[in-house]
Amino acid sequence: MGNKLYVGNLPYSVRDGDLEQAFSAFGQVSSAKVMMERDTGRSKGFGFVEMGTDAEAQAAISGMNGQSMGGRDLVVNEARPMEARPPRSGGFGGGRRDGGGFGGGEGQFRSPYGTGRRRDDRGGY
């Protein structure tokens, strides 16, 4: 059993200090972190709490799992290591080996009608 806990189903109004205060009833809280959206600064609705000992962590799981906070029932369990995600592919021009991007090749513009002819200097096909 580890002493790092996952805390899910948090109300979006909960911040680090609120989490630390709630879990301090079960022992020493080494750290408490609510995960936030990078772009908006809004809570993601989950966080992590690190307790001082494994026994305190177990007591916090028993005491807080299923308890209501801000009208939501918390999910508290032992944190698991983050799983590696596969690399992202696609997007705007990335990951293609056939000329990439939108045009498909050097100086070549494709007709929306699928003819595949090169555009001449006057802009026609």
3D structure, described in words:
With 125 residues, the chain is α+β, with helices and mostly antiparallel strands. The chain contains 2 helices and 6 strands; from the N terminus they run βαββαβββ. Strand 4 (68-69) and strand 5 (72-73) form a beta hairpin. The chain is globular. It starts with a strand and ends in a 47-residue tail after the last strand. The mean pLDDT is 83. Residues 82-125 are annotated as: Disordered. InterPro entries: Nucleotide-bd_a/b_plait_sf, RBD_domain_sf, RRM2_NsCP33-like, RRM_dom, SLIRP/GR-RBP-like. This is Polyadenylate binding protein. Residues 90-107 have a biased composition (Gly residues).
Task: Label this structure with key terms.
125 residues; alpha+beta; Alpha-Beta Plaits; four-stranded antiparallel β-sheet; two-stranded antiparallel sheet; 2 helices; 15% helix
Could you name the CATH topology of the domain at 4-78? Alpha-Beta Plaits
Strand content: 15-25%
Distance between the ends: 69 Å
Fourth-tier CATH superfamily name of the domain at 4-78: RRM (RNA recognition motif) domain
Mean pLDDT: 83
Rg, nearest Å: 26 Å
